[in-house]
Amino acid sequence: MSETVSSPSAGAAWQALAAHAAVIRGRHLRDLFAADESRGEGFAREAAGLYLDFAKQRVSAETLDLLLALARERGVEERRDAMFRGERINVTEGRPALHIALRLPRDRSLVVDGVDVVVEVHEVLDRMARFAAAVRDGSWTGYGGRPIRNVVNIGIGGSDLGPAMAYEALRHYSRRDMVFRFVSNVDGSDFAEATRDLDPAETLFVVASKTFTTLETMTNARTARAWTVGALGDEAAVGRHFVAVSTNLAEVAAFGIDPANAFGFWEWVGGRYSMCSAIGLSTMVAVGPEHFRELLAGFHAVDEHFREAPLRDNLPALMGLLAVWNTTFLGSDSIAVLPYDQYLRRFPAYLQQLAMESNGKSVRLDGERVDYPTGYVIWGEPGTNGQHSFYQLLHQGTRIVPCDLIGFCRSLNPLGGHHDLLFANVLAQAEALAFGKTAEQVRAEGTPEALVAHRVFEGNRPTTVLLADELTPAALGSLVALYEHSVFTQGAVWGIDSFDQWGVELGKQLAQRIAPELSGDVEAGAGHDSSTNALVRRYRARRRR
Ligand code: F6P
């Protein structure tokens, strides 16, 4: 850890923003809109098919200037350029963070440690495309010679959330005569439910794991192998029913998967940034190589925009700065992502890993503890469903939860008036959250006085409205890249390593220690704290034998 940074909170722009936050707290969005008739257009930007309206964020022109000054003070552009050059910006693991290389076009070049990684990336993409085409056209057959009808991705974290989210998001473009399932949880119910109606002779497992050592994935993969071999009666069936995606090809071979059926990637791809790598194999089989390339092109368009656009017009940089503003300076603990599109129902879960594993850190790059809040909780559900459950708190609760409302101008399933109603709700929610309803307005509706306070909406609750024309593969890629670079911007401002995840290790180690105590293989119920000991004893007394 050689990199040294001074505390970001000591910087002039940081201090100015902290003082400015007190001013903005006293201003209502109603006043900000009243003071500037062109706010709706002035606080909106467009790039790569995405339209970002942040006019309903609690920012003035001065706030924006100060946030841009903060970005310069924190060296966001320098760090961004270092990422794009392939420098080892993941300092605690000594690695580059080069997911942007996964979507560079074939005619580009990016040399890292003397190797043009773009050449390697396209070699793997071409192999994936040949394999995906063979599964799709039936020329890749199962052990008994029948075509593959079911694809089950086994992976967890970044080796699950990206493929699962992308499959749901791009279902419109997927093969409807094939079944795609995703098994992640070590809970046996996940595997059992995912496979209970599948015919092993027509089922392909994609074992996706960067390390190929992850407990959950390897446990599920072993169960899948036993399920397949048990049904097909021959170990040789593994060669037709299992492929692997990993950086650890030695472990893949040790598991018994033919290296010819393995698709590699590289240590410079973080798990949560890996959906464009071979980890996307199940996505490619589902939607086909052409659509997968469109997805990559969408990512790349935002990569280029992030790399080239001035910060003032840079969508991911602005989104990242607004997230810092809302959480670190205005004190919100969480941000809700509310996609008004049913196909994006797994998008908030995907973003949870992206944002929280990246920026849930308390220590700066130089090892010093931060003296300001960093990563926030990100959560959400598709609208309009959330409106009938948790939006009450968003509108009238004591906590301010900034929201990203994501909408599309055209539906992939135009049914009667559904889409206008859906889209009306995007605009209505943003309007209601920003402007609320005053006591005078409530009284003017004839509300009994005893109910007036209950029916007031304070408003002044910030939202960003994010629009694209249609949920195409390219639009999905652009949307994900937008959030990736927003998260990057936040991490750069906070001066943390957004690419490591040491915080997941302790729980894993303890589970490895506790598991044999539960199964009875070792003496149990004494070596922990009194609560854990009692829970171990209770489980052992009641577990199924
Ligand atoms: O435990 C967290 C994590 O390391 C994630 O960062 C990663 O996406 C996930 O586990 C799965 O890891 P792997 O792809 O190596 O199985």
UniProtKB/TrEMBL annotation:
Its main location: cytoplasm. CDD domains: SIS_PGI_1 (cd05015), SIS_PGI_2 (cd05016). PROSITE patterns: P_GLUCOSE_ISOMERASE_1 (PS00765), P_GLUCOSE_ISOMERASE_2 (PS00174), P_GLUCOSE_ISOMERASE_3 (PS51463). It catalyses: alpha-D-glucose 6-phosphate = beta-D-fructose 6-phosphate. Pathway: Carbohydrate degradation; glycolysis; D-glyceraldehyde 3-phosphate and glycerone phosphate from D-glucose: step 2/4; Carbohydrate biosynthesis; gluconeogenesis. The keyword GTP-binding does not apply. The active site is at E357 (proton donor), H388, K508. GO terms for biological process: gluconeogenesis; glucose 6-phosphate metabolic process; glycolytic process. GO terms for cellular component: cytosol. It is found in: Cytoplasm. Keywords: Cytoplasm, Gluconeogenesis, Glycolysis, Isomerase. One of its GO terms (molecular function) is monosaccharide binding. InterPro entries: G6P_Isomerase, G6P_Isomerase_C, Phosphoglucose_isomerase_CS, SIS_dom_sf, SIS_PGI_1, SIS_PGI_2. Its EC number is 5.3.1.9. Belongs to the GPI family. Catalyzes the reversible isomerization of glucose-6-phosphate to fructose-6-phosphate. HAMAP family: G6P_isomerase (MF_00473). This is Glucose-6-phosphate isomerase. It comes from Gaiella occulta. The gene is pgi.
